[in-house]
Design goal:
Blueprint (H helix, E strand, L loop, with lengths): L1 E8 L5 H9 L3 E7 L2 E7 L1 H10 L6 E7 L6 E11 L6 E8 L6 E10 L4 H4 L3 E4 L3 E6 L8 E4 L8 E3 L10 E2 L6 E6 L4 H17 L7 H68 L1
Parallel strand pairs: 1-4, 2-6, 7-10
Antiparallel strand pairs: 1-3, 2-3, 4-5, 5-6, 7-9, 8-13, 9-12, 11-13
Length: 281
């Protein structure tokens, strides 16, 4: 589809002139490509109609430039635009001039056709993985959209870029293994809750990993051994003290026995003295 758009050349650039231009009911635009760059002003209503009627990046626009010194009519693409985040009004537009005889690269929207996929009817979920595809072709061969028939997809199946229906004169540039659409296996709320619960239990039941735990265990073992050695030393010391005390006690008892043995030694002397006295008598 091709659109007609009128533009006027503007001489002043910058934020101030752009604000003045918007207050006057027009919006600033830039035309670049083919070795030239022009400052333009556009009718915002005409731009909005093009954006609403067709994907902006693929619509061919026949641009008539009033006040141009060279070509008055050019073939362009609406490459980019800016809009007010609050009001949604168009603030600025970038146009790209193209040659109808040279291939270009553009992004084309993906459209899923064929009705509800078989897998979705069985409870599956349709995942639209790629909303746009990058293609290369002549400007006159740009497709409005790339249609993907997903009606026969069952649960677990999908369509890759390499499986897309080829379009004459159009080359797909995305990776061949990329998934465009697929029907995923549904997960029930009970199963999801069970998975989350089991994951939480696993995390709670798992002992925290302590760096150098083995080393700490060895150190603790050494500490116990050292403590054990200390206890043994104390025990040996105590045993030695008890043994020394016992020896000392035995020595004391021996001394006591020796003292008791002295009177027995004196008894013969007393008997000798008594015998001497008897002789005197």
């Amino acid at each position: 589809m091709k659109f007609d758009l009128a533009a006027e050349v503007r001489e002043r650039a910058g934020k101030g002139p752009a604000r003045q231009l918007r207050r006057s009911g027009r919006i600033p635009a830039v035309l670049y490509g083919q070795g030239e760059c022009l400052l333009l002003s556009l009718d915002p209503l005409a731009v909005t109609m093009i954006l609403r009627a067709h994907a902006g990046s693929t619509a061919l626009i026949s641009l008539t430039v009033n006040g141009a010194q060279s070509k008055a009519v050019r073939t362009t693409l609406l490459r980019d635009f800016q809009e007010d985040p609050v009001t949604g009004e168009i603030l600025h537009v970038d146009l790209f001039e193209i040659s109808l005889t040279k291939p270009i690269r553009v992004k084309v929207p993906v459209s899923v056709v064929g009705g509800v996929p078989a897998g979705v009817k069985d409870g599956g979920l349709l995942h639209h993985n790629m909303r746009e595809l990058l293609v290369e072709c002549l400007p006159t061969a740009i497709p409005e959209r790339v249609e993907v028939d997903a009606s026969e997809l069952v649960i677990g199946q999908g369509i890759h870029v390499r499986e897309l229906k080829q379009i004459e004169g159009v080359k797909f540039l995305d990776e061949a293994d990329q998934m465009v659409v697929r029907v995923a296996i549904p997960i029930s709320e009970a199963k999801l809750e069970a998975l989350l619960t089991s994951g939480a239990v696993t995390e709670e039941g798992k002992e925290p990993e302590v760096i150098g735990k083995g080393k700490e265990e060895v150190v603790e073992g050494e500490a116990v051994d050292e403590k054990g050695e200390k206890v043994a030393a104390v025990a040996e010391k105590g045993a030695a003290a008890v043994e020394a005390k016992g020896e000392k006690k035995d020595a004391k008892e021996a001394k006591t026995d020796k003292k008791e043995a002295k009177p027995e030694k004196k008894a013969p002397q007393a008997e000798k003295k008594e015998a001497k006295e008897d002789r005197k008598k």
